[in-house]
Design brief:
Blueprint lengths: L1 H11 L2 E6 L2 E2 L7 E3 L6 E9 L3 E10 L5 E10 L2 E8 L3 E2 L3 E12 L2 E9 L7 E15 L14 E8 L1 E12 L4 E3 L2 E3 L6 E5 L6 E5 L5 E6 L4 E3 L6 E7 L3 E7 L1
Antiparallel strand pairs: 1-13, 2-13, 3-11, 4-10, 4-11, 5-9, 5-13, 6-7, 6-8, 6-10, 11-12, 13-14, 15-16, 16-19, 17-18, 17-20, 20-21
């Protein structure tokens, strides 16, 4: 009983400091008006992340529903889009906020390029045509093709802005009196088959503990994935290198 109490106090002693740091045009202003967006054109804008954060989603505010859409995020090289960081699968656009979840990824502070391509031409999202000084980059590609891994041959134009934004959690540190470190993320969570441990900077040992404080599984993290298919459904804690403690749900 004493060991169980110590374990629960240890878990509760940790605090997760995280805040919503969505980056980009999360809301429409009067400057954004309905416009016909071409199909088969990957186009996007630069956004600035002022502090390190964990990317959760790529987002667009849709104006009408129905078109297929893919989104992508590129890093920045001296003010122009560079290498592909992540992208979404094909989705169907809806009117209002469209949030397309991606595998969580830790992003350093800096500039990024968020882009979208539509399957059908139409009033897919609103555009600000008076964004003087704002530069957008684009590339004509077939909607069904893979998105480019590099943007070195993209073209640019000025004066337009789009309702695209990044879903980011910032201030991701875990701390208590003795430890302070970057937040480790479990994905997917809840899960049935496996959990993936993201943001580890080295190989690590793990142990999984149930709500009774019993260690029921331990081992080494290989390729950041841990099989949980043999666990009973429920809530569990995972301890990584005897320091990082996270909870997950087995479905």
């Amino acid at each position: 009983m004493k060991n169980k109490i110590i374990f629960l106090l240890f878990i509760l002693s940790y605090t997760v400091y995280s805040q919503n740091c969505n980056i980009g045009n999360e809301t429409a202003t009067g400057q954004f008006t309905t416009a016909s967006i071409s199909s088969n054109v990957l186009v996007g804008i630069k956004v600035n992340l002022t502090e390190e954060g964990t990317l959760r989603s790529l987002n667009v505010i849709g104006n009408i529903a129905g078109s297929g859409i893919k989104m992508a995020l590129y890093d920045d090289n001296s003010g122009v889009p560079n290498d592909l960081i992540t992208s979404t699968s094909a989705n169907t656009l809806k009117n209002g906020i469209n949030s397309f979840v991606v595998t969580p990824k830790l992003l350093p502070a800096g500039d990024y390029w968020i882009m979208a391509i539509y399957e059908t031409k139409g009033n897919n999202t609103k555009v600000n045509f008076s964004a003087s000084g704002n530069t957008a980059y684009f590339k004509n590609i077939d909607y069904n093709d893979d998105l480019p891994n590099n943007a070195s041959d993209f073209s640019s134009f000025t004066g337009q802005d789009y309702l695209y934004y990044l879903g980011v959690d910032c201030g991701n540190t875990l701390s208590n009196q003795n430890f302070k470190f970057k937040k480790v993320v479990l994905y997917p969570n809840p899960s049935n088959e496996y959990i993936q441990v993201l943001n580890l900077d080295k190989k690590a040992n793990f142990s999984i503990i149930n709500l009774k404080g019993q260690e029921i599984l331990k081992g080494n993290i290989k390729d950041e994935k841990i099989s949980i298919k043999n666990l009973k459904p429920g809530l569990y804690f995972i301890k990584i290198d005897n320091k990082k403690n996270l909870k997950f749900i087995k479905t």
